Amino acid sequence: MKTFLPFAQIVVAIFLILFILLQQRGRALSSIFGETSGFYATRRGMEKKVFWATIIFGILFILLAIFNLLS
Fold it and tell me: With CB atoms 3.0 to 4.6 Å apart as the test, which of 24, 48, 60, 64 could cross-link to 9 if both were Cys?
């Protein structure tokens, strides 16, 4: 169990970094593909899923850090 927690935390950290980098502040996800609209929009579709995945992986990272500290 002691070797599993640090490994799981590293994997979760990598996914968390990727999800954070996929988000762009104030622009839609389509701006990655060349569309440049300069207005704020509500999160829809893929953007919403990336946003919630970031929150879930952030919470999971914190929980793994606490469990790693306690074990």
Answer: 64
Residue labelled with tokens 């999971």: 60
Q: 1 near 71, Cβ under 8 Å?
A: yes
**Using CA atoms, how far apart are residues 26 and 37, in angstroms rounded to an integer?**
10
Give the containing element (helix H, strand E) for 64.
Answer: helix 46-70
Contact predicate 8/64, CB 8 Å:
yes
pLDDT value, residue 48 = 87
Q: What percent of the chain is predicted at pLDDT more than 90?
A: 44
Strand (E) positions, the chain?
A: none
The C-alpha atoms of residue 58 and residue 65 are separated, in whole angstroms, by: 11
